[in-house]
Each structure stands twice: as C-alpha cells, then as structure tokens.
Design brief:
68 residues, mainly beta, 4-stranded antiparallel beta sheet, two-stranded antiparallel sheet, 6 strands
C-alpha cells in the first residue's frame, strides 16, 4: 500500500533479473537488491517521501513511496 507504515510489497511478472532501489529525498540509495519481487521492510525509515526505481534490460519504472 502507498502510503505504507512498514512493508512495501513488489510483484513483477517479468522473469528476467531486475534491480530494485529505494532512494531518500536527497537521492541517496538506501535499499538496493536484485530480486524477482517480494517485500522491502520500511519500518526503520523516518516518515517522508522516498523514490522507488525498478530496472532491467527492458524495463525502467519509478514511483514515489510515502512512509507514514
């Protein structure tokens, strides 16, 4: 859910490898992992706006994530 209070669930129907990154408002990468989906734990983050970026060879997706 967005806004979220603790977990960010990611579901992608791609079978190719991809990179998930979460950035703070200053552009600093705070989470980076290669994955086929799953969840990212956010309960240790301060409330605010973060930016999610998912990339692969054929895909590039960005979304604003709000942590309560």
């Amino acid at each position: 859910p967005n806004p979220t209070e603790g977990n960010l669930n990611i579901e992608i129907d791609q079978i190719e490898p991809f990179e998930i990154q979460l950035f703070d408002p200053t552009g600093r990468s705070i989470v980076s992992k290669s994955s086929a989906g799953g969840s990212i734990q956010l309960e240790n983050l301060a409330s605010g706006v973060y930016y999610l970026k998912i990339t692969s060879e054929e895909l590039s997706f960005s979304k604003k994530v709000i942590v309560k």
